[in-house]
Each structure stands twice: as C-alpha cells, then as structure tokens.
C-alpha cells in the first residue's frame, strides 16, 4: 500500500477553531471510529497477543523474559515513534530512503485533517505506530531464549530508526519505491523485514544453550492458542484498517484475510497428518501465521478465490521450507531462529508479495488507489492486452523484495556489531542454564513447593499426635 504523503499534505487545525468543535465538518465519524477500532485491534495483536504467544511457546524458564521482550518493545517503539520515527517514515523527504526526523506531538499537527482518509492525523500516527511496534516484536521471535535483555533494550530503538523507517519511507512514505510496489498492508515493509532482520540478528547473537536448542517444548499450549487467537482476529484491524475508510476495500480485505488464513492452517495441518501421522497444534499455529502474512500485501486487491489460492500456497510452500529444506541445509541449521520467524514471515511475506503482483485485480487496484501508477496483476495482464504492465509490476515486486532483504541484512548486522561493543549480545552460559530467575529474579509460575520447605501439618484432632506416638 502507498501511504505516500509528506508533511505538506497535512492540513493543520483551522485558525479560529473553537475548543468545543469536537468534530469538524471534514471528520468522518464512521471512518474515525473504525480507524480507532482497527488500531486497537492491531495493538492487541502485540499486547497481549504476542506477549502471551511468546510467553507460552517457549520453555517455562524463558516465559517471563520472552513476554517481557515484547512488552518492552511496544512501549519503547511508541516513544521513539512520536519523537522522531513517524516523520522519518512519512515526513518531508530528507533523502530517497528516509524522511526528515521531527516530533509528532503538537496539537496543530495531530488534530489536523489528513488527506489519507477523512480522519485526524492522530489516527494515522497511532495506526502506523502499531505497525512499527509489531514489526519489532515479530523480529524478537528469532532471539528468544538467549539475547541479553540490555542488548535488546538498545537494539529496539536503533533498529526502528535505521531499518524500519527506511523500508516504510521507501515503499509507503514517498521514497524511491513509492507507488511502484504493491504492498497493501506490509508484506514487505513489516513481514519480510522482520523475518530477514530476525534471522540476521539470530546469527550475530548466537544460539541458545545446547540443551534448550535440542529440547524446547512450549510451557502452555492452551495459552499459546489464546495468544494466536489475538493475533488472528487482530488481523481484521491490520488489513481492514489500511484503506482508512469504511468502504468496499476494507470489507473485502477482511474476508480475504480470514479465507487465506483458514486455508493455510488446514493445508499445514494436512501435511503434518500425511507426513507425521499426527495433527500438530504448534503446526496449526504456524500455518495460521503464514496465511496471515501471505495475504497482507494483497488483502484488498485480490479476489476471494485468489486469497484461498494464496492460503494453499503459503500453507504448503512454507511448510516445505520449514520442515524439509530447513533440516537439509547447513545454512539454516547454522542459525538458531527460535520460533522460525524467517519461514513464517520472510518466506511467507515474500511469497505474498510475489503473488500480489501476479493476482492483483486491476479494478480493485483502481478502487484502492484512484490515482494509481501501479501496473496490473500479471495474470490479468495476459488477458486484457497489458502484458507489458504485468511483467513490469512483477519486476517491481522483485526489486522491492531485494531492497528490503539487503537493507535489513546489512543494517541489522551493523547494529548488532555496534551493540556488541557496548554490552554482550548473548547472555552468559550460567544465566542461560537458569533462565528467567537469573535475568529478572522472577519466574512465570509460582508452583506450590518450588524452593519452599514443606510446612508442618496442623492437626485438627487434639489426640492425634499422642496416638501417633503409640
């Protein structure tokens, strides 16, 4: 999706606006209400969604640390976003890759009218923060179970500043790829970048404790499903909020999102049953995630049958890369990607971006982008006499994927090297054996008897002790 507008595209609060004028004429109450609802749904994907998912999907000894990494990132990204990040991603152009840093805190700015939808600028700032936050938190899934928490605290603002904002500005904010790449809601900007960056950071941080890497069962599968549920249903706001209007595209995007996700989940479970003779609950969650990711770059731009096709391909091809290729190639084995973020986000995001270039319907592109400069989906161009436009669009999709991949791999490496000069990226071996108690002095579950002596029994019958002595 192109969110491309610069600071001059904002209309500041009109002069003489009365304090009691809570809803100016330009403000669509319906669009505003939906946008705030959609933003809240996206935020719920992170807190509590990924907080619960991460805290449940790891071993018990890492539950607190994993959940806290997501919790901290959500707060840190918001502060950085309003102080400088939003304008770097969507502000006045400083360079072809980035906007000019500036704060997004003034009343005149936040309460002005945005030309992207009939909503206040504040809606846009907060919605884009939710996108930025979940990107960083998804990246954390590659690093659970061993990254030094102090290194993570430094990593979050640095990566947001020098990696995420660059991708967002380049594709959405008026950069050199704006209005060329079909990326409706972040298949490249969010998922490909988090998957590549997570895999790269995992290489630099190093692997988990050897025993953890061999044996890493979830500590609570029921809670894991609860976190996954927040993620799935929250995606309604993720893809439904991107048009910034309660219109036809939003409705179609929501239906397509859930169709693709359900199809991907069922295909993934089917492969598990065929190959391993059991339906894995963890596999179902992975299939769900790959479907959500794959549909994101084209959610409002493809027809429902195409969404189901995308789900079938994401559930099968991503299953193959994770369950087959990952085990065959030393390249994948050499990097400890804790929750397989590379496969569920980088591979699925890339697949979704390519399929969007193939399956995007011209009429839907025009509906979403009235002043479009995009080509048409390749499959439609073969029948409507616009083959050149279709191939050009596919080339743009590949170009965007290459840029996001190379930039994130390079910048994430530089950030990790810089942080390693300040603090250790990886925890000490002794702390890796202990887990949460060593890092935070806290444990996830206060199981009765853990570290406590058995209390002396208090008998209700006064004669029982004397009977025992006999």
Summarize the main sheet: 2 strands, antiparallel
The strands making up the biggest β-sheet line up spatially as 1-2
In terms of per-residue confidence, which ranges show pLDDT below 50 for 5 or more consecutive residues? 4-9, 460-470
CATH superfamily grouping: Ammonium transporter AmtB like domains
Provide the CATH top-level class.
Mainly Alpha
Distance between the termini: 84 Å
Structure classification? mainly alpha
For the record, the CATH architecture stands as: Orthogonal Bundle
Rg over CA atoms: 24 Å
Query: Helix count?
Result: 19
How many individual β-strands?
Answer: 2
| CATH topology value | Ammonium transporter fold
Helix and strand succession?
Answer: HHEEHHHHHHHHHHHHHHHHH
Strand content: under 5%
Summarize the topology.
Elements: H1 29-57, H2 63-90, E1 93-95, E2 98-99, H3 107-110, H4 121-140, H5 149-171, H6 187-205, H7 210-214, H8 221-240, H9 248-276, H10 281-295, H11 304-328, H12 330-333, H13 341-359, H14 362-368, H15 378-381, H16 387-420, H17 429-434, H18 436-440, H19 464-469
GO cellular component, one term: plasma membrane
Transmembrane segments: 33-55, 62-84, 124-144, 151-173, 185-206, 218-238, 244-269, 281-299, 305-326, 338-360, 400-419
Subcellular location: Cell membrane
């Amino acid at each position: 999706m192109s969110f491309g507008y610069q600071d001059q595209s904002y209309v500041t609060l009109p002069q003489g606006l009365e304090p009691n004028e809570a809803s100016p004429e330009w403000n669509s109450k319906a669009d505003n209400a939906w946008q705030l609802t959609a933003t809240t749904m996206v935020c719920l994907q992170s807190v509590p969604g990924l907080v619960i998912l991460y805290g449940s999907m790891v071993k018990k000894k890492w539950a607190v640390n994993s959940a806290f990494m997501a919790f901290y990132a959500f707060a840190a990204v918001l502060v950085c976003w309003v102080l400088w990040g939003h304008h770097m991603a969507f502000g006045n152009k400083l360079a072809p890759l980035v906007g000019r840093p500036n704060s997004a805190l003034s009343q005149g700015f936040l309460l002005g009218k945005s030309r992207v939808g009939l909503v206040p600028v504040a809606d846009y700032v907060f919605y884009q923060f939710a996108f930025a936050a979940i990107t960083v938190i998804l990246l954390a899934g590659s690093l659970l179970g061993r990254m030094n928490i102090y290194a993570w605290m430094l990593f979050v603002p640095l990566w947001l500043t020098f990696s995420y904002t660059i991708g967002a500005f380049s594709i959405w904010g008026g950069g050199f790829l704006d209005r060329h790449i079909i990326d409706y809601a972040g298949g490249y900007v969010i998922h490909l970048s988090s998957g590549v960056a997570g895999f790269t950071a995992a290489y630099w941080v190093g692997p988990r404790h050897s025993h953890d890497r061999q044996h890493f069962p979830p500590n609570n599968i029921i809670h894991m499903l609860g976190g996954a549920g927040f993620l799935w249903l929250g995606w309604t706001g993720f893809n439904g909020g991107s048009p910034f209007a309660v219109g036809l595209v939003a409705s179609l995007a929501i239906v397509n999102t859930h169709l693709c996700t359900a199809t991907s989940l069922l295909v993934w479970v089917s492969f598990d049953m065929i190959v391993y003779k059991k339906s894995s609950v963890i596999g179902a969650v992975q299939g769900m995630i790959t479907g959500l990711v794959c549909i994101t770059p084209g959610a409002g731009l493809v027809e429902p049958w195409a969404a189901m096709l995308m789900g079938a391909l994401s559930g099968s091809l991503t299953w193959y890369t994770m369950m087959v290729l990952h085990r065959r190639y030393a390249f994948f084995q050499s990097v400890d990607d804790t929750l397989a973020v590379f496969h569920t986000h980088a591979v699925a995001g890339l697949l979704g971006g390519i399929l969007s270039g193939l399956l995007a319907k011209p009429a839907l592109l025009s509906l979403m982008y009235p002043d479009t400069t995009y080509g048409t989906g390749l499959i439609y161009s073969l029948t409507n006499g616009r083959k050149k436009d279709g191939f050009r669009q596919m080339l743009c999709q590949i170009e965007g994927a290459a840029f996001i991949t190379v930039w994130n791999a390079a910048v994430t490496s530089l950030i990790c090297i810089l942080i390693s000069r300040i603090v250790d990226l990886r925890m000490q071996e002794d702390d890796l054996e202990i887990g949460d108690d060593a890092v935070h002095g806290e444990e996830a579950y206060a199981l009765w008897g853990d570290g406590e002596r058995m209390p002396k029994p208090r008998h209700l019958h006064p004669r029982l002790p004397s009977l025992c002595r006999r």
